[in-house]
Design brief:
Elements: E1 2-8, H1 13-25, E2 30-35, E3 49-57, E4 60-61, H2 63-71, H3 73-78, E5 81-87, H4 102-110, E6 117-122, E7 124-126, H5 132-144, E8 154-156, H6 160-177
Parallel strand pairs: 1-2, 1-3, 3-5, 5-6
Antiparallel strand pairs: 3-4, 7-8
The protein binds flavin mononucleotide (FMN).
Flavin mononucleotide binds near residues 11, 13, 14, 57 and 134.
């Protein structure tokens, strides 16, 4: 398969997840990975599978991502696709599935594009990367939601086995289609 992996990321963690998935899929497929940009026109028809990952900031997806899926809705709908959301709420077991995560629900509500595969991954907390304002807001949210508040800690909540399974499901998807 020829696979396109697109990402919408602010601090780079979604890029890391996309790189992991790309590396796995490269064992059997031709994979291209690039950030979502509304400048370049993508020729969707040359790809057999399109994967999009997007992270959450202050309760929402980035505008560029929402604009992209809206403007390319019919092309995406015609293609075989997967989507995954990256957010910190997903660190909680009870909010870690596509049926319970609020940002997956939000995606379904906002998006006319309905991917073949949907997943959610918990993100990363790295206070050292945030400016004064963001650091304090996130810290306050963590305090309220019983998360880590030590600003010298970097915590990656991502379950890499789950990421592996997601990549595997895309690999298998192709095998089923054959
Ligand atoms: C300023 C800021 C706001 C955030 N807001 C939310 C939020 O509202 N809900 C949530 O679940 N995660 C939130 N997060 C956590 C991010 O989704 C998480 O850190 C993710 O790994 C970021 O991915 P990225 O590096 O690809 O942008 C926020 C993080 C930052 C830095």
């Amino acid at each position: 398969m020829k696979i396109l992996v697109l990402y919408s990321s602010t601090d780079g963690h979604t890029v890391k997840i996309c790189s992991y998935i790309s590396k796995k899929l490269q064992q059997n497929h031709l994979v291209e990975m690039t950030k979502i940009s509304n400048d370049d026109k993508i020729n969707f028809s040359i790809y057999d599978f399109i994967i999009i990952g997007a992270s959450i900031r202050y309760g929402t997806y980035r505008k560029i991502f929402l604009k992209f899926i809206n403007e390319n809705y019919s092309e995406l709908q015609k293609s075989t696709t997967a989507f995954f959301s990256v957010n910190i709420v997903a660190r909680k077991k009870e909010k870690n599935s596509i049926n319970t995560n609020p940002y997956v629900k939000k995606f379904y509500k906002l998006s006319k594009w309905k991917p073949n595969v949907v997943e959610v991954f918990a993100g990363k907390l790295d206070y050292s990367k945030y400016n004064f304002f963001n650091k304090n807001i996130i810290r306050l949210i963590m305090l309220i939601t019983k998360g880590p508040t030590r600003t010298d800690e970097v915590i990656e909540f991502t379950d890499w086995n789950k990421v592996e399974k997601f990549a595997q499901s895309i690999d298998n998807f192709q095998l089923m289609k054959k």
